[in-house]
Design a protein that fits this description.
Elements (H helix, E strand, L loop, with lengths): L2 H26 L14 E2 L3 E2 L7 H21 L13 H19 L8 H4 L3 H14 L1 H4 L23 H10 L1 E5 L3 H8 L3 H12 L9 H13 L1 H4 L25 H10 L1 E5 L3 H20 L2 H6 L1
Antiparallel strand pairs: 1-2, 3-4
Helix pairs in contact: 1-2, 5-13, 7-13, 9-10, 9-12
Family: Belongs to the CcoP / FixP family.
Cofactor: heme c
Pfam families: Cytochrome_CBB3, FixP_N
Length: 308
């Protein structure tokens, strides 16, 4: 906080404290000429009279003590702009202290899973259950409570993995995140093959998952040479993709952003930018292992897990 804002806050606090003291003093004292408490002239039903009786002294003094306490509180804990107070207390320090205590409890609770391989953890039903709970609290916002994902968010229950589905690769994804970038090729393709070039390439890409669809398909045939000149660098000549860079396999029936021709064309024309946030700092290594074990177990059923 800048010095200007600090002085602004200090002035507001000072005005409020002085104002409260003045208000108590002004309303508590009696002045010459003031009417008696019984002289309000407010009478109902002949015998019900409104009085103007000041607060008891002990009550007024309690208000003064409250003001004195507030001054001491501000002096110790801060509250005057950038002034931190004699106690040097801050909400950040309080949060970090509480977090360190809770993290220590979690580390103790999960100590038996520390450093264990993902596939070994996945054989422990209790560990998988814990991983499921962590997933529900941390990952379900994007991938859904059932982990089946949505448009733009991968389905974690099948055997399709853009960044490889090995245990170590899944752990790396959870801990360090991923960033998949599909560049926009609309302008480039238009320069290569005219205004219909994007649709031609989309037709060819769509045909990769259905080889018969390439037969007698004029648009796919027109798109093939442009694909081979531009897209093979990431997706390969056969369209199988490249897990080391997150380039998806175009020959299967899984489409992260939709499988219609219009959706595929939109991906080619405008590009995509998918980000999986890193959770190393949020979860730590051991809890990340538990989540990774749960995710890995989703596509490796009990029989596969037991075999592994």
């Amino acid at each position: 906080m800048s010095n200007g804002w600090s002085w602004y806050v200090i002035a507001l606090v000072a005005v409020n404290i002085v104002g409260c003291v003045w208000l108590l003093w002004w309303t508590a004292r009696r002045r010459p000429g003031d009417p008696k408490p019984t002289d309000t002239s407010h009478v109902w039903d002949d015998d019900i009279t409104e009085y103007n009786k000041p607060l008891p002294k002990w009550w007024i003094n309690l208000f003064y003590l409250t003001i004195i306490f507030s001054i001491g509180y501000i002096a110790w804990f801060g509250g005057l702009g950038g002034y931190k107070g004699y106690g040097k207390w801050s909400s950040t320090q309080e949060h970090d202290r509480e977090k360190s205590v809770q993290d220590a409890k979690l580390d103790e609770a999960f100590a038996s899973y520390k450093g264990k391989p993902i596939d070994e953890i996945a054989r422990d039903p209790a560990a998988v259950s814990i991983g499921h709970s962590i997933f529900a609290n941390t990952c379900s916002g994007c991938h859904g409570s059932s982990a089946k994902g949505a448009i733009g968010y991968p389905n974690l229950t099948d055997d399709v993995w853009h960044w490889s589905g090995t245990p170590d690769a899944i752990l790396q994804t959870v801990m360090d995140g991923r960033e998949g970038v599909m560049p926009p090729w609309g302008t480039v393709l238009t320069g290569m093959g005219g205004e219909n070039a994007v649709d031609y390439v989309a037709s060819y890409v769509q045909s990769l998952s259905d080889p018969k669809g390439l037969q007698n398909n004029f648009m796919a045939a027109q798109g093939k040479p442009m694909y081979e000149g531009l897209c093979v660098a990431c997706h390969g000549a056969d369209g199988k993709g490249n897990p080391t860079m997150g380039a998806p396999d175009l020959t299967d029936d899984y489409w992260l952003y939709g499988d219609s021709k219009a959706q595929i064309a939109a991906t080619i024309r405008n590009g995509r930018h998918g980000v999986m946030p890193a959770h190393r700092e949020l979860l730590g290594e051991t809890r990340s292992r538990l989540v990774a074990a749960y995710v890995w177990s989703l596509s490796n059923g009990p029989s596969k897990v037991a075999a592994n």
